[in-house]
Amino acid sequence: MFTLNKSRELEERPAGARSQQEHLTVVGSMLQSAMPVPDFTLDYLDLLDMSVHRTSLSDSAGMVRLLSVINSLEKYTCQQQTLQWERYSQQLPPGACVFTVSMDLPYAQALWQSKHEVIHQMLSAWRCNSFGPAYGIWLKEWHLLQRSVFVIDHRDCVAYADYVVEQTQEPDYEMALAAVNRCVRAQRMAYVKDE
Length: 195
What we know:
By secondary structure, this protein is an alpha+beta fold. The protein has a single domain (36-194), classed as Glutaredoxin (3-Layer(aba) Sandwich), CATH 3.40.30. The chain is 26% helix and 33% strand. The protein contains 4 helices and 13 strands. The strands form 4 sheets. The chain has a 5-stranded mixed sheet with strand order 9-8-7-12-13. The longest helix has 22 residues, at 173-194. Residues 1-21 are annotated as: Disordered. This is Putative thiol peroxidase. Pfam families: Redoxin. Residues 33-177 form the Redoxin domain.
């Protein structure tokens, strides 16, 4: 069993992911619909002052968030996934946003963003050893994150989780977008009730 800060044992899912013929062990329990999501603190490079800053889930409280998780920007499928979410991010309704999360260093992420004209927020989990296990996406053999997509509603609960088993395949974009739109509608209804 994998342990996090030697405080508790975490579930390991042998062959929970694969890359063609290579079977990969995934550490952490899968998040289920309506569960509160674990908070996180991840890094990003601020292009204004060229320094690394930290952000947490609570910094975007009240919004509908789509987390697109990739192995590494060095992998072709991860690049395609990130570019596809960039295209979709331009069409999202107000109150929703996209984050791409990987283990790449913030400087590498920013360089890739600049080269490919990607403007949605990239977050680096390189210093956060709890993010992967907490979301059930730590690839033990690769020391990277499993390809996945999470939609988090305005109450910080899981609205949709797609754990992609085959790491050379892209996620189901349409299902994730449908979940985002459902969450935005629910968010608007909640605001109307509160008024």
